[in-house]
Amino acid sequence: MHVGLVILPSDRWAEARRQWEWADRSGFHTAWTYDHIRWGGMPDGPWHAAVPVLAAAAAVTERIRLGTLVASPNFRHPVTLARDALALDDLSDGRLDLGLGPGSGGPDATALGQEPWTPAERLERFEEFLQVLQPIVDGEPATRTSLTTAHYTAAEAPSTPGAVQRPLPLTIAAGGPKGLRLAALHGANWVTVGPTGNVRGTPETVFEAIARQLPLLDEACRAAGRDASSIGRILLWTPTEPVITSLGQFEELVGPVAELGFDQFVLHHPAQTGPYEGDVKTFEKIAELSAS
């Protein structure tokens, strides 16, 4: 199983640069960052913008895959995000994994002065968001996308110079049947945190939720005419406890996840500004083990 890392965009670049370089050097498969204006886990900051952070990370790393986990329609437009994604894919020499989700009712939901959307409205917008974004990032260099949905318009939006990766891999966040249908239709990968709504993320609630979600994903793939084994399965581990301080503890945690068919397990950087902790030396052993 691959192991990835979330590096929150919370620290000044002088320190954050060392975090991204460490992730690359240690052997982690992916390094993601959250895409928010304000994050509910640290509503008063500090907090930086995801796209320029990933651009800087692309310049100081060599092999690790980079991505958003996740960008959403809460404050993004599919045309401008597609253009950002094409640039990041080029800057990283084809190492971008673009993570996308419908968003939530957190601080981002009103960041542009709008009334917060209901969960149903967020999913409706997200479906249209994907319909507009995907042909832009997957288009040939000369492609121009024109499309109008209920909420978005693309007017001859260019795909130039074209993605390095063909197709550019989308990682779709979903927990319920409607979101999983979109993951099956659009995603190279599916990512889940386990429980949705106001359920507290604990090891118990995470495993209960993914046990319910996996059959729904298989069903969504069948409905889309897709082999369920063709979609990557990523678990983003969000509980702050237990704090991982030994390799044995990690193996006990990740073993059941691998048995359920997940191929990537994503942890948070153990030593940066934010709510997540862990032992750095243990994380280096985890990365080395997963890379072997």
Description:
The chain is α/β, with parallel strands linked by helices and 292 residues long. The protein has a single domain, classed as Luciferase-like domain (TIM Barrel). Helix content is 39%, strand content 17%. It contains 8 helices and 10 strands. The strands form 2 sheets. An 8-stranded parallel beta barrel has the order 1-2-3-4-7-8-9-10, surrounded by 6 helices. Strands 5-6 form a two-stranded antiparallel ribbon. Helix 1 (13-26) crosses helix 2. The chain is globular, with a radius of gyration of 18 Å. The termini are close together. The model has no long low-confidence stretch (mean pLDDT 96).
CATH architecture: Alpha-Beta Barrel
- Cα-to-Cα separation, first versus last residue: 10 Å
Radius of gyration: 18 Å
The 3D shape can be described as globular
Summary, kept brief:
By secondary structure, the chain is an alpha/beta fold. Helices cover 39% and strands 17% of the residues.
Describe the secondary-structure layout.
Elements: E1 2-6, H1 13-26, E2 30-33, H2 50-60, E3 65-71, H3 78-91, E4 96-100, H4 119-138, E5 144-148, E6 153-158, E7 170-173, H5 177-186, E8 189-192, H6 203-223, E9 232-236, H7 247-259, E10 264-268, H8 280-291
Descriptive terms for the model:
292 residues, alpha/beta, TIM Barrel, 8-stranded parallel β-barrel, 8 helices
